[in-house]
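Protocol step 4 of 6: structure prediction from sequence.
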Amino acid sequence: MKIKKQEKIFIAACLFPALLLTVVFFLAPLFRGLALSFTKSTATNIGGEFVGLKNYIDLFSDPYFYQALGNTFKLLLFVPFCLNALALTLAFLVTQTRLRERGFYRFLFFFPSIISATALGVLWSNIYSPTLGIVKKLGELLGISSLQSLAVLGNQKTVLIAVGVVMVWQSVGYYMVMYIASIDGIDTSVFEAATMDGCGIIKKIVYITLPILRNMISVTFVLSLSSALAMSYIITSVMTAGGPSGSSTVILYYMYKQAFEQSNFGYAMSVAVVTLILAFLLSKLSRCLTAERE
């Protein structure tokens, strides 16, 4: 069926605003940042001297970049796995136990996801505070001296775990609701047949629910991976500022410091380009690992 000229004009008119926004807010900044990564740009001289691949050569020989990259990968390993495992567990508990207060628990766990990440960072900074925080009070209550004096955010061994816990706590309710919706969409006759065959709750989860949720798990894992990359910057900038001694500096915060503290915009753009490539590769890798096999 041929499309009339008027219909073509109407379709073009509908697509033009979206295309314009994509060009202005995505493609233009993307190519501008790529161009700046080959220059020696500063806050007072954007688009300065062309230096070729110097920024990239300096980047891959910078130990602080590798430290930030390592911290980022640690969070990207910890957060998505813990987040999805906990969200799935909570979803199973809420749906399988048939709680009367199901709506209340769904709201209770979902609530942190609607709070500003900045506000959460401030809240958990106070919780982790070695002078007034809950960790110190818990140590006093239990009589554990090591907890009373533990500076969670000031210890290189615990700071990344502390940041990861906040990121998981903030998002677990959101993914729990997604899993609950998927579980509720499963035909109840499947579970009834399994019950008649003598299957318990564990077998139903392992042999029925998880295989059916495979596509949803794939989607949520990719989403949690990308959101963890973005959230890592916000949480670390509010709670730790990359400290102590760079032990919680993630790649996006490292880019921010280079641009706005060191005024090295060209170098910061090279960090941004490498981050974009890594994010794309991680997304593709996670999709390949979790894709449904025919």
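Step 5 (inspection) to follow. Residues 104 and 293 are 37 Å apart (CA to CA).
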